TrEMBL record:
<dbReference type="InterPro" id="IPR015421">
    <property type="entry name" value="PyrdxlP-dep_Trfase_major"/>
</dbReference>
<dbReference type="GO" id="GO:0016830">
    <property type="term" value="F:carbon-carbon lyase activity"/>
</dbReference>
<dbReference type="InterPro" id="IPR015422">
    <property type="entry name" value="PyrdxlP-dep_Trfase_small"/>
</dbReference>
<protein>
    <submittedName>
        <fullName>Tryptophanase</fullName>
    </submittedName>
</protein>
<dbReference type="InterPro" id="IPR001597">
    <property type="entry name" value="ArAA_b-elim_lyase/Thr_aldolase"/>
</dbReference>
<keyword id="KW-0663">Pyridoxal phosphate</keyword>
<dbReference type="InterPro" id="IPR015424">
    <property type="entry name" value="PyrdxlP-dep_Trfase"/>
</dbReference>
<feature type="domain" description="Aromatic amino acid beta-eliminating lyase/threonine aldolase">
    <location>
        <begin position="42"/>
        <end position="410"/>
    </location>
</feature>
<dbReference type="InterPro" id="IPR011166">
    <property type="entry name" value="Beta-eliminating_lyase"/>
</dbReference>
<dbReference type="GO" id="GO:0009072">
    <property type="term" value="P:aromatic amino acid metabolic process"/>
</dbReference>
<dbReference type="Pfam" id="PF01212">
    <property type="entry name" value="Beta_elim_lyase"/>
</dbReference>
<comment type="similarity">
    <text>Belongs to the beta-eliminating lyase family.</text>
</comment>
<keyword id="KW-0456">Lyase</keyword>
Amino acid sequence: MVAYKSKVVERIELPSRDRRERALAEAGYNVFDLAAEDVFVDLLTDSGTGAMSDAQWAAVMRGDESYAGSRSFAELESAVRDVMGFERVVPTHQGRGAENVLYGALLEAGDVAINNTHFDTTRAHVANQGAEPVDCPAEGAHDRQSDEPFKGNLSLERARSVVDDVGAERVPLVISTITNNSTAGQPVSVENTRRVREFADEIDARFVIDACRFAENAGFVRRREDEFAEAEIAEIAREQLSYADAIVMSGKKDGLANAGGFVATDDEGLFERCKQRAILFEGFPTYGGMSGRDVAAMAVGLREAVEEAYVTDRLDSVGAFAGLLEDAGVPIYTPPGGHAVYLDAGAALPHLSDDEFPGQALVCELYREGGVRGVELGSFAFPDTDRPELVRLAVPRRTYHAEHFEHVAETAASVLENRAAIDGLEIVSEPETPELRHFTADLEPV
Ligand code: F0G
């Protein structure tokens, strides 16, 4: 059931085919280099790109810009306490700021961090502390067709084998990313979260939840985990987060805000350490690099994120988008994730080998054909790993409507009709850091 109507609108336009062709070539076949004005339906990310509610905009007007002791920060503390169950909050400019603050307080050189799957910035922050990020995704997480309900889970078996190899004393940190962005946005069950808590206790490690998409995850738990079939989203969210020692949050996702993030914990010692790091890297601990109005908008957004109507609308609209793509014969990762639909570029363009970057070729064709911008998450973004060739079409929150999704599905279908003519790509210039090459490298058709 649709849960929103528009109160403010933004004009968009599909540039001419000529313009799209030129824009793509000028961008070096890398859609990160396109001007947003040249994009018709922008599915690059769900991060910070959502529409805020009237209540959030009202909060913006009332944002308190005081350097210290801002009323907006008190509102955030109260929202985090009510919605997420933690007493102490360290605000940061966005999620990766929170990662820097928290992982810097928990990790030392030579440590190992276990995660269901590290998101790019998480991996980079763990590595930046001189620690080693190790992924322990569930068995079958990369199976693009199975209908397992919780493919985002952390594999306890894999985690135990990491500990057997390196020794428990080297593993001070276990992270669960809910939903699991780097595994096609798949959810994590509360049952798995409980078992990860027990595992962390066994090896005397801290347990952190990356809660960026905690509300979507709670929606999946209610739909798929019997114990919670009758529970309210808000209850599920609090229960799942209650197992963690601390959470890292990007307010740009399920904070329903355009900026912001935070660390939250009940551990006083950890809180003090994070606060000191936050002063160094983010700002005074009652604003943390955000303006007071951003803090205020996020405080309202967190409460809206666990409203029943919001979560139902969110999961239903991403699910309906996935259905349109499937009906149009486009191969996708199933079941679809919470924040995005992932296209299976390997299956869509079987005539291209991995080193011709089928995912990136598909991204370029979606833009050329219909002005649609997605992002490659395959061998272009992750060189030297054996991930499947996926293209993520991330869905900004409360922003696009059925007609936009129909346009994307029609675009993808007409791209696939002419798939045999689609050329692969080769890299013609790239930065020195291969982990970040997909943001800035230039390519050319082979
Ligand atoms: N953790 C996860 C699971 C994320 O998906 C992101 C960001 C971050 C941390 C970092 O948060 O962007 O506020 O600094 N993901 C975005 C994306 C960028 O497009 O998936 P941030």
